[in-house]
C-alpha cells in the first residue's frame, strides 16, 4: 500500500496548483509522471537509490526535475517528501536541510 505523509500530500497539491497556474500545458503530464513513478514502487520498492537520510530512498521521476523521498517496510510504502532536484542537491536552504523543509522549491 502506498501512504502519503501530510507534508508530502501537501507538497503534491502545491505542485499541482503551481503547475496549473504557471505551466498549464505541462501540468497533467508532470502529475501523471509523478503518479506513474510512485506506482512502480508497489512492485519495485527498492527502485529508488538509497536516501541521504537513513531508512529512506530517493526516486527520481523521469522527465521531470522532481525527486520522491520514501521509506518502506514489507508492503507499505510511505511517501515522505516531494522535492525539486535542485533543492534536494543543496546541503541546506535557509539553515534547514532539504528533508526538513515544509515546502519545496518551484523552478
Structure keywords:
alpha+beta; 5 strands; 5-stranded mixed sheet; 24% strand; YaeB-like fold; globular; 107 residues
Fold and architecture overview:
- The protein is an alpha+beta fold and 107 residues long.
- It has one domain: 2-Layer Sandwich (YaeB-like fold).
- The protein is 36% helix and 24% strand.
- The chain is built from three helices and five strands.
- It has helices spanning 6-22, 24-39, 85-89; strands at residues 2-4, 49-50, 57-60, 66-73, 76-84.
- The chain has a five-stranded mixed β-sheet.
- Helix 1 (6-22) packs antiparallel against helix 2.
- The model is unreliable at 91-96 and 98-107 (pLDDT under 50).
CATH superfamily: RelE-like
- Largest sheet geometry: 5 strands, mixed
Main β-sheet, spatial strand arrangement? 1-5-4-3-2
Query: What is the number of domains?
Result: 1
Q: Low-confidence runs (pLDDT<50, min 5 residues)?
A: 91-96, 98-107
Q: Spell the H/E element sequence.
A: EHHEEEEH
Helix content: 25-40%
Over the alpha carbons, how many angstroms does the gyration radius reach? Answer: 13 Å
Judged by helices, strands and strand pairing, the structural class is alpha+beta
What is the name of the CATH class? Alpha Beta
What is the oligomer described by this structure? single chain
